[in-house]
Amino acid sequence: MLPENTAAGSGEFSARVAPLVHSAQTGGGLSLASAPLPPLPWEMEGQQPPQADLQTLAPDLLAVSPEMKAFVDSIDPSLSPNQRMRRILRTLRQQRFFMEYDLDTTATAAETFSQQRGNCISFAAMIVALAREVGVPAHFNRVYAPKERRATRSDSGRVLVENVLHINAEISYGWSTRIVEMNFEPRSHYRHEKLSDEDVQVLYLNNLALSEARDENFDAAIGIARQALTLSPESSVVWNTLGYLYRRQGSLELAELSYTRAIALDDKNVSAKRNLQRVYQLQSRRELLQAAESSPITDQDS
């Protein structure tokens, strides 16, 4: 599964996606789909747009490790690519390959194969990587199953609610395809939508940003979210995550800009609308506090 903040690993795609912070419900006055996009937060800060460097930022999600290659090479090379891929899946099941599900671990294909721990993005990445290694086309899908929610509480008592999305893998055998769910579970009957490798990489980075935020490494988290946005500037999910990170950092104006952009890109992003309302509440409190502090204090005789 993948949170949608959400984070995807299965997002506050990895496919988890952007955070949904507890707040009051938002009315219908936040429809911004037809409004012009607000300036980018780094434009407000007078900075240059971030440059993506995925080689140093994160491991290659679909890289095949020597261990994986040795496993593929052990499958009879005289078979056709399709036959070898079917044999790979059958061998994994016979060897009782089982990935321990951990929503907070968005592992690469190689890490999943070695450690057998991760989320739905992790398992799908492993299957896609193995299929391509034997020459069989494969891609990721987003599954439109009802969203799950998970609430976590930090040491400081803050509650983060994450909407969990689901990702699986699809293998093409030419005239037929096979959906591979996490741990080879029965195929979901919900609608699927093909995702590009870039889409999934964005969700992967979104999850990494949320992982850094859980450890309160907000500068690192914001840097990763910005890198994700260089790949997909119109990802409402990542903009929602960036707004959450800015809010946690205390940068309410940048949080407001990020949430507003998330809503402008996707008017159905309820998480961003609720989070934006929360920012407005915090801004009002800050203004009231500043007004109180600036008011002259007078003594009053009793």
TrEMBL record:
SUPFAM superfamilies for this protein: Cysteine proteinases, TPR-like
TPR repeats (start-end): 236-269
Transglutaminase-like domain ranges (all copies): 77-162
Gene3D superfamilies, per database record: 3.10.620.30, Tetratricopeptide repeat domain
Keywords, in A-Z order: TPR repeat
PROSITE patterns the record matches: TPR (PS50005)
Protein name per its UniProtKB record: Transglutaminase-like domain-containing protein
Lineage: Bacteria, Pseudomonadati, Pseudomonadota, Gammaproteobacteria, Cellvibrionales
